Amino acid sequence: MAVLNKIRQRSLFLILIIALALFSFVLADLFKNSDALSAKSQNIVGTVAGKDITREDFLQKVEAAQQQAGPTATNTQVMNRVWEQEVRQAIMQSQFDELGLSVEKDQMRDLLKTALSTNPNFQNEAGLFDEAKMNEHIATLKETSPGVYQQWINYENSLASGALQQNYFNLVKAGLAGTLAEGALEHQLEGNNVDVKFVQIPYSSIADSTVTVSKSDISNYINKNKKQFKVEASRDIKYVEFKEEATVADEEAIKADLQNLLNNREEYNKTTKATETITGFLNTEDNEAFVNSNSDIKFDNRFVFKSGLPSTVADSVYNLEVGAVYGPYKDNGYFKISKMVAVKQIPDSAKVRHILIPFIGARSAAADVTQTEAQAKATADSLLTVLKSNRSKFPELVEEFSSDQGSVANGGRYDWHPYNRMVQEFNDFEFEGKVGDLGVVKTIFGFHIIEIEGQNDKKKAVQVATIARKIEPSEATIDKVFRDASSFEVAVAEKDYQDVATESKYTVRPVNGIKALDENIPGIGNQRPIVRWAFESDSEVGAVKRFNINGGYAIVQLVAKHEAGLMSVEDATATVLPIIRKEKKATLIKDRISATTLEDVASAESVSVRTASAINMKNPTISGAGREPFIVGTAFGLGEGETSGLLEGANGVYMIQVTKVTPAVELDNYQAAANRVEQQKVNVVNTKLYNALKEASEIEDNRARTQIQ
Fold it and tell me: What positions does the domain PpiC occupy (predicted)?
């Protein structure tokens, strides 16, 4: 009983303990769920029309697209491209699902047949598409190359998606028609004309400086037109760039180094402990070795015509005697000295035909290439033997053996093309041989059986040895740039950014309105690290950070953060100010006019009464006044002889009087005009349907939040 009494006495305490334990359990579960939700949100790049785009799937597609795009496209450009593709696919798929559209097996077969009908891998002996060959190819891929098989599946999906979109667009177009009533209206809009007399008091007659537009005026306009002024989150920054650029002294030193290479010089060899004579560029007989040992650009043994030389020095270099030099001269970021090595006459263009036999490992060799290099050489040699006895077989052998699809359709022929267009081995054969020569040449693409079919007149070509030194800053210059950037970074941490820059005579470059997925910073190019930093939650306004950029540094300050919502008054001023000013000018003009006739208004405002003839609704322009849709529309609402009140137009305040109404000629049938209306509707489908669907779709873009860019 004593124990029970103690329990009763402490019941409130026990209840609190139990409640806290339960609360802790619930909290732990909430945090667990919160973590799960956070992990999920981090794995969702975006949601379009109810469909989630996962991070893993998105990045796989980006990687594939990056490989296809090559090094010229930035990662952000590729990501944006893939994002737009995913958005389109999701939006269109939602429409396909709603309508029950799909690509069935028979249609897929027809699509593949159409797409692959000219592919020789899927043709029979008669040159017709062979479905059995295609099915065999797919089965082989599935068994032996899962990666390539997946690429094939992606290809089929792409064909299916394109077909579904075309079907969808065709369905929409099929529902469009131009009725006879619409045709009659179209004819009237084109043919109804009015003649008018009018008075225009241009807005420019009131000086802008006399019209006050307040911030509240602009703010009210923004709030009345919210859709027009919605903006994404953005950041404003400013930066000072410190470039690692060669100084005049650096350039002079580079030129001096080049000039020192011209003549023989004496150098002490520490290994042999003797003074040796180093042969100069003017005296060397091994120009290739000399250039490769002393130049930032390797020796090029090709002959070139005058047009192939740097344009600024072409005359000087082209006319050198063999053994003579020209330079130093500046060209494309280098200082150069050029030496004439040899001169010869070469055809400036040639025509050839060839058969390409690739081998495993050759550039651009297809996945189905199975011959080794030795086997490919043997094949080429055997084809050469056949052709030497019967050249008429060339087209037949091209069709059967050549892997160069770009020339197969033309009988393996490359029509007239200039010197140095082909890879060097191919080029040397076709330009150093003579018309009719037939031979086998190995290049990085495989073995070519080449026949020279034609050569144009020969002209002078030159072989030039050029020593090039890149124009770049010296170590001393690089060190100074680093010190200057560091000093500025330290100074702005304690003093005003602009003041320090002004004192040091540095140029401050402001950049406003940066979006979360932007990559380019004007003046310094692709700088995703700067954009990411500006949008990090712990980057505060006023923060300064140094960034390594291409060829130097940028000391960047975060100036402002703008959250998503409505555009600020300051940012909207450039757009809104002219609109409100025009509205206020219209009110001032209308308030001061009491006259009710054109002549009285013209007299009061010291303007003239003007005329305009044959105005129509299709092209709402008034001669001498400009495009005025509202004024023209009002004119068509007046009867002949009627006068309007004061009207606010695009370019001024007007009063108009209709002097003549000329109706369109009545037609017996308006089908032609109805057909034009229908075609206009169809054209709008091609250009505006997808954008309309996109605007109506719910799109959640989380790319910035998921930190994939």
Answer: 347-454
